[in-house]
């Protein structure tokens, strides 16, 4: 009996507040927009019994999804989300790898402090970390002031409200997610392998490419997914740092819901976003699984 | 063979400068006399004063704290139960669905979680306010708690529990007296994680909050959309200070505990 309660409580909670809401989204994505409260039709009316369910099912259709494929806005938003997420992931890797490598090479007594320094921003408000870049990137911001002062540029660069600002924002906020898995892979590495390579005549650089990088592959893959997956559905960064022409699917969904009040289309956008996410998520799970098996 | 080269030193310096400079600039300019946020006009703490008189920020902060305390506490209880079911629950009907529901919210985009919960609350006619934000935050943060706690449960010796049961403990007592003290650090860090996630959340709260309840991130977001302001800088500085003190204290305590544990283990090894 106790065991039953132990299982049932979290189970029912998640069923009611995770799975059922998602089924509602799925259902509304198949409905039509209507001028009523709530603003969609058909409504499921259980009081009419089986006939009600049948007529309800017959009114559902894939119209919203067809609409999404016909309107170029949505198509562009999906493509540009994928593009922005992919570019930012590569940039995060390029910035994060040298940091993780430096941490793994650092003396033992520094490591707890270095780790703390990487984790600390993660606990700090996401919103504030994104906000801090507005003052830096704006036309009269610190970056432009600095570059004008050094004489590198003569007119301020427009960075805020462009895709570049979005890349910077994503790299900045998701950097700890990239550093930590790469660091933990590099930390486990057996240093004597590098010694052997150098004894056998490998240069330091080629030893790095032939030994260090392949041995940290699992960390690189994990880090890339941990950045790519949340970046794809990102809302805060494109809406604060991006411009009006920065199309990202999280922002489109938000506007479709709050500004256009088109619930069925917003739901359809959500369903497709999830379908796109399934592939990287499954690949990520596989990578983790493989890693666990290798560790055992 | 570890060699800390110039390249390593440079990349660490540049990397940490990149991570910390934006926040340091924010903190410095929260003490700026001028309303113009990029021009330094002398030291002043006046923005902290205006902030403390701003009722709407104070109200929002109070709502946020209430939501975070309530949701992280419920999430810790439910999440620990969930972890226990996952690791020790054995086989039961729908186990795959259960573990799917634990892991899926971790990767679910916030816009989808927020949208789906809002549609549920409207569908069942629940008035939106603090209560609905607590429900929403509990749901996604309990999954994070489950993951943290279950990783601790997996690594700990099951025979300790079995010994307690053999010696006549009820399963509940075995959990309370043996399991809980061992997994306590994970439960506490789960609570802290849930608390921070709740404090930090903008997207899900925006969907599930009604007009009656505005959380601090919602308030900050609407202010920030209009550009940089010194009040927000001051508020950010306070929040960064709280987090920094919290994280450093927590890490000192964990370090002390693990040193104490090491000492105990060595002492036990000597007497044995």
What does this structure look like?
The complex is a heterodimer of chains A (296) and B (272). By secondary structure, chain A is mostly helical. Chain A has 14 helices and two strands; from the N terminus they run H-E-E-H-H-H-H-H-H-H-H-H-H-H-H-H. Chain B has eleven helices and no strands. The mean pLDDT of chain B is 89. The two termini of chain B are 37 Å apart. In chain B, helix 3 (55-88) packs antiparallel against helix 8 (171-200) and helix 4 packs across helix 6.
Protein topology:
The complex is a heterodimer of chains A (296) and B (272).
Chain A: H1 2-29, E1 32-33, E2 40-41, H2 50-59, H3 63-70, H4 72-105, H5 111-123, H6 126-137, H7 142-150, H8 163-188, H9 191-199, H10 204-215, H11 217-232, H12 236-240, H13 249-258, H14 263-295
Chain B: H1 6-29, H2 46-53, H3 55-88, H4 95-107, H5 110-123, H6 130-155, H7 158-166, H8 171-200, H9 203-208, H10 216-224, H11 230-271
Helix pairs in contact in B: 1-11, 2-11, 3-6, 3-8, 3-10, 4-6, 6-8, 7-8
């Amino acid at each position: 009996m106790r065991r039953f309660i132990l299982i049932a409580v979290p189970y029912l909670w998640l069923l009611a507040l995770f799975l059922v809401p998602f089924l509602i989204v799925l259902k509304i994505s198949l409905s039509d927009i209507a001028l009523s409260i709530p603003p969609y039709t058909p409504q499921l009316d259980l009081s009419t019994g089986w006939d009600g369910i049948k007529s309800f099912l017959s009114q559902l259709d894939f119209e919203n999804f067809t609409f999404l494929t016909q309107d170029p806005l949505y198509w562009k938003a999906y493509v540009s989300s994928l593009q922005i997420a992919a570019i930012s992931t590569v940039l995060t890797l390029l910035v994060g790898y040298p940091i993780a490598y430096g941490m793994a090479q650092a003396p033992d007594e520094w490591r707890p402090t270095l780790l703390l320094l990487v984790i600390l921003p993660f606990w700090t408000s996401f919103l504030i970390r994104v906000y801090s870049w507005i003052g830096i990137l704006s036309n009269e911001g610190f970056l432009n002031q600095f570059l004008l002062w050094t004489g590198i540029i003569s007119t301020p660069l427009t960075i805020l409200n462009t895709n570049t600002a979005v890349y910077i924002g994503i790299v900045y906020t998701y950097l700890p997610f990239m550093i930590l898995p790469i660091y933990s892979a590099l930390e486990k590495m057996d240093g004597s392998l590098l010694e052997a390579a150098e004894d056998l005549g490998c240069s330091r650089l080629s030893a790095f490419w032939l030994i260090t990088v392949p041995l940290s592959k699992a960390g690189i893959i994990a880090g890339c997914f941990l950045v790519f997956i949340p970046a794809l559905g990102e809302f805060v960064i494109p809406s604060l740092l991006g411009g009006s022409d920065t199309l990202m699917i999280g922002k489109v969904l938000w506007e479709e819901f709050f500004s256009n009040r088109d619930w069925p289309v917003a739901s359809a956008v959500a369903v497709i976003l999830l379908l796109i996410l399934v592939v990287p998520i499954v690949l990520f799970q596989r990578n983790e699984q493989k890693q666990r098996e290798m560790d055992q | 063979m570890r060699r800390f080269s110039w390249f390593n030193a440079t990349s660490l310096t540049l990397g940490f400068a990149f991570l910390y400079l934006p926040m340091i600039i924010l903190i410095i300019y929260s003490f700026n006399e001028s309303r113009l946020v990029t021009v330094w006009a002398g030291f002043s703490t006046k923005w902290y004063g205006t902030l403390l008189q701003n009722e709407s920020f104070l109200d929002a902060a109070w709502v946020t704290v209430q939501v975070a305390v309530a949701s992280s506490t419920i999430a810790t209880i439910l999440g620990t139960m969930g972890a226990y079911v996952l690791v020790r629950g054995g086989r039961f009907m729908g186990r795959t669905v259960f573990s799917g529901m634990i892991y899926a919210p971790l990767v679910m985009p916030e816009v989808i979680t927020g949208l789906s919960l809002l549609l549920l609350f409207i569908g069942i006619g629940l008035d939106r306010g603090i209560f609905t934000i607590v429900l929403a935050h509990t749901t996604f943060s309990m999954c994070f708690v489950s993951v943290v706690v279950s990783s601790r449960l997996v690594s700990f010796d099951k025979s300790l529990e079995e010994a307690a049961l053999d010696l006549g403990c009820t399963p509940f007592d075995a959990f309370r007296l043996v399991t809980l003290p061992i997994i306590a650090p994970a439960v506490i860090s789960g609570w802290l994680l849930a608390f921070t996630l709740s404090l930090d959340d903008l997207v899900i709260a925006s969907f599930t909050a009604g007009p009656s309840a505005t959380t601090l991130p919602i308030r900050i977001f609407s202010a920030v959309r209009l550009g940089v302001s010194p009040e927000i800088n001051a508020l950010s500085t306070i929040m960064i200070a709280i987090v920094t003190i919290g994280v450093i204290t927590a890490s000192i305590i964990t370090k002390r505990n693990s040193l104490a544990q090491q000492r105990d283990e060595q002492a036990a090894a000597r007497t044995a």
